Description:
It holds the Pfam family AAA_22. The strands form three sheets. This protein has a five-stranded parallel β-sheet, with helices on both faces. The protein has 486 residues and is an alpha/beta fold. It has helices spanning 11-25, 41-50, 68-79, 91-98, 118-126, 146-155, 158-161, 174-185, 188-191, 196-205, 210-228, 232-255, 401-410, 441-450, 453-456, 465-471, 478-485; strands at residues 30-34, 56-61, 104-111, 136-144, 164-168, 291-298, 316-323, 391-398, 418-422, 431-438, 461-464, 474-475. Helix 5 links the parallel strand 3 and strand 4 (136-144).
Amino acid sequence: MTKGSSFALLPSQRSLLERLRYLIEYGDHLILLHGCSGVGKTLLAQTMLEGCEEFNQAYVEVSLETDPAQLRSDVIAQLVQNPVFDSKEPLPDTLERLFAGSQGRVLLVVDNGHNLADTLLAELLSLIDDLRLPELSITLVIATQTDLVDRLHHELPEHYTERLLPIEVLGLSNRERQLLYNQLTGSVAKRRLSNEQGIEQQLRDSDGTAAAVVEIASEQVADAESYYGLSTLHQRAIGTIAIMMVLLLLWWWLDQPSEAVNRPGERIEVALPQQQASIAKPAVAQQPRPLVIEQPVETVTTELAGEWPAKTKTQQQLEPIVIATPTPVQIIEVGSLEDVPSSLPEPEPEPEPEPEPEPEPEPEPEPEPEPEPEPLTLMQQPLKARPNSSYVLQLAVYSEPNLVTSFINAHQLQRNDVRVYRNSRQPKPWFIVVIGGYSDKASALAGVKALPQALQQIKPYAKPISAVKKELVEEQQLAEFLRKHG
Length: 486
């Protein structure tokens, strides 16, 4: 991915880019953008130049075969139009002669700085602290491997190391590897004939650099292009064979008889359940049945006038007569009504209890005086209320609020110690993260050593409250800010 690439930056790259732009905006620094090979240092350096158009900028890429005279010529040609200079002259002397009496800001970016010769490296480093160019602000950014950073820390004088700001470019997370892979493959990823799980495993097993993800994506794109590079006849033949194989498997599967289904005409032997022994019902006490006596009942036939009486005898029908058996009746002796009292005796009213004497009210204790509130420490006071002579440690600056929340959560900062305020930078304001409260600069520098190791690596610097108040527009309520942008 080179300059002008259409690929979108990943979240971690956007966060680093915001930090680089802030460091370039404020002060003259020697920024070492370091990391292992292939992590994307070149992309970050070139993208940073695109957002710093107000600088007079130059970009050079160094290789082992780079001629020092040619490198000087490339730098001067980008900074000055139609210059007249000697390429064998040291770079600070040339800049002093060409920029004498002029004001401006220069941004010089050197890629693959670990390939620089010692003479060129010394010339570039001297530009940061050159007193011959008091009105020229120079910021030097060197993209290099980590070995050069360790070497400069051991060999440079102290006044140089104080302005040295190393920024490490870490490897990509698993999610960012997948995002970069999808960007590189594009629509081919939707059509390729490859194993998705296998690709995800390759991405997880890689070293996390962008170069490793590019290599995996290139192999997949090449495989897909080799398949789609076949002629139409070959593609149709492969598709026909695949369809025939599927149809044969389907026919074989349907032709297999199911073991659970019986064929017609096949006799199924089913064992009949054995007859269970009848359960004896409990004996029911027999009630005395009523006597039934059948008596003949004469039926009366009515004859109509003019009809002959029937020759047959009167038919007799037997109609049952039911005689109920007598049941014994139990006689209960009850006394006379006079023995029953007409009403119950009324209960005697209970005597009312004597009222207890009311206790004497105890005297109310005198309220204790409220303790006076303890004065707020310097760390607890709002930024505007602190004295101008005090200091804070500036940790990070972002133009996106959600990046501030990610930074605070990633370093697990105590929210009572952290302050976030907004400035009025245009076209987009910045959110500055500061920590602590110190009475003087010496205490602030000592407070840097008390910070966790992860915060010490980002090189926080002591910032006076007077400078904070000049750019402070609004101090954020941290709890509300984190809840809103979390």
